[in-house]
From TrEMBL:
InterPro entries: Ester_Hydrolysis_Enzymes, Hemolysin-typ_Ca-bd_CS, Hemolysn_Ca-bd, Serralysin-like_metalloprot_C, SGNH_hydro, SGNH_hydro_sf
SGNH hydrolase-type esterase domain sequence ranges: 49-238
Gene3D superfamilies noted in UniProt: Serralysin-like metalloprotease, C-terminal, SGNH hydrolase
Protein name stated in the entry: Lysophospholipase L1-like esterase
GO-annotated molecular function: calcium ion binding; phosphatidylcholine lysophospholipase activity
Length: 428
């Protein structure tokens, strides 16, 4: 058995025998690794940075939780089977958004963002930032002042992490009405001056890229009385999402598996260990061991008799064909098993109810745990603590082992074994 370790650069892992494994334990990003397709890539970590436009306000009086361009980015990338990882200290958007992290502070100015950027960059370790900021400054500041504040922010971001690529978007236009023509003109002038500033900083070696969104029109901005004429409509946010994705594709590359060039390949690899982040690990038709480690992971065993170890975090474990073994330790864990997919078992370090199509349950650790079966003929085994085991339907076999256990058979021809301790038995 050989264990290969990710090097944070493109690797070709070639196993020589059986039970070879690749570990992403030291990875600085989440990973999507698939043994069936024979490849893996690290999730591009993206920091959406700015004000209420990054937050996703459509109408300041009513629609503030749309997720804005972030929602449309995820939808478009998901349609391409491409995954990214939004990062940031804030989280909002509709419940349907799988990744709601961002750093969009409503009503904030460029200088306010400059006051937190060191901490945010250090905490998120992002690969790229998507910056739209300056709309709030345009209420009072001159164009030269806005440009100087933008320069200061970009230099500070670059100083915080020279490897961070900052994509700087031009501002959406101001819709005149509740807002003055003078303010709209300031935003237009600011946008027109931005390419020169970005080019100057890029020539000095800073990783900054201008993203031209000046094709947006006032029709893409929500009109009064729903809004003050500052925030994009849903259609406007969809356009902004397209600008961002096009820029990411041009700079990092985009294909059917992801964004970026940090990709690995697998040959004769049986097992995978994930990272400390949210990973997606997939097996093949053989017997695989998939260990999510930390983070909210998705593990899919597919064919073969697999071991799926969620690790720390709320994990989703999908077995498939074969006699699969699930390890769960978080109330947010989920196990999904197909019908007639072998005799499967769950090893639980917490109170647990067997999912559909999983036959057997083993309670682990020394804690006083409760286990509940399903409609199948279940075998359920306790630990050294005082357990409650409930078989429900089917002809179940319940074994309390150590501790003073309570064993509940339910309907069906059940066999209840107490073990050591003062045990109680309940028959239907």
């Amino acid at each position: 058995m050989t264990v290969f370790y990710d090097s944070n650069r493109p690797d070709a892992f070639v196993g020589g025998g059986s039970l070879d494994s690749v570990s992403y334990k030291a990875s600085s990003r989440g990973v999507i690794a698939d043994l069936a397709s024979g490849h893996a890539y690290k999730l591009l970590s993206i920091l959406p940075l700015g004000d209420s436009i990054t937050y996703g306000v459509i109408a300041s009086s009513s629609d503030t939780e749309s997720g804005g361009y972030r929602k449309f980015m995820l939808e478009r990338l998901d349609a391409l089977n491409v995954k990214i990882d939004f990062v940031g200290s804030l989280s909002n958007g509709p419940a349907s958004m799988q990744d709601r992290d961002h750093e969009g502070h409503r009503s904030w100015t460029l200088n306010q963002l400059n006051g937190i950027d060191d901490d945010i960059v250090a905490a998120t370790k992002a690969d790229a930032a998507l910056l739209i900021a300056g709309t709030n400054d345009s209420a009072t500041d001159s164009v030269p002042t806005m440009l100087q504040d933008l320069r200061n922010l970009l230099l500070s971001l670059s100083s915080s992490d020279p490897a961070l690529t900052v994509f700087v978007g031009s501002l959406p236009p101001i819709r005149v009405g509740q807002q003055s023509q003078a303010r709209a003109d300031r935003v237009d002038a600011y946008n027109d001056a931005m390419p020169g500033l970005i080019s100057e900083l890029a020539a000095q070696g800073h990783k900054v890229i201008f993203v031209d969104m000046r094709d947006l029109t006032p029709d893409d901005i929500t009109a009064p009385p729903l809004d003050s004429g500052l925030h994009p409509t849903a259609e406007g946010y969809a356009k902004i999402a397209s600008y961002w994705i096009d820029a990411l594709e041009q700079h990092f590359g985009l294909d059917g598996t992801g964004i970026g060039s940090d990709r690995d390949t697998f040959t004769s690899i049986e097992n995978l260990t994930g990272s400390s982040f949210a990973d997606q690990l997939g097996g093949n038709e053989g017997a695989n061991v998939l260990d999510g480690l930390a983070g909210d992971d998705v593990l899919e065993g597919r064919g073969g008799s697999d071991q799926l170890i969620g690790g720390v975090g709320a994990d989703t474990l999908v077995g498939g064909a074969g006699a699969d073994v699930y390890y769960v330790d978080n109330a947010g864990d989920k196990t999904i098993e197909e019908a007639n997919g072998g005799i499967d078992e769950t090893h639980a370090y917490i109170d647990w109810t067997l999912a559909d199509n999983v036959e057997n349950l083993f309670l682990r650790s020394a804690a006083n745990l409760a286990g509940k079966g399903n409609g199948l003929a279940n075998a359920m085994v306790g630990n050294g603590g005082a357990n409650t085991l409930e078989g429900l339907g089917g002809g179940d076999q319940l074994d309390g082992r150590g501790g003073s256990d309570r064993l509940i058979g339910g309907p069906g021809a059940d066999i209840l074994t107490g073990g050591t301790g003062n045990d109680s038995f309940v028959f239907a």
